[in-house]
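Same chain as my last thread, 89 residues:
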Amino acid sequence: MTDELLHTLTPLLRARAESQPPDLRELTPETRLEQDLGMDSMTIVHVLEDIEESFDFTIPDERLAGVYTVGDLVDIVRTTGPAAAGRAA
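reply #2:
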């Protein structure tokens, strides 16, 4: 599931990244949004908005803090998104 989410998030991240690593297809959960992709806090907010729109769910405010890596984004989608809601039902 993590690999699938990484694949899905890559175009969203590529569209917003200031720094383009040699191979953005090689994003890992450890890829840092600020240091590795050159994103500032406003850009990260835009990425979160892109995720909400793409996956059709709202990220709770308490999940917005502490987003530093691609893995944090994957975790938000995995635990908050539509698939998580289906598991809770």
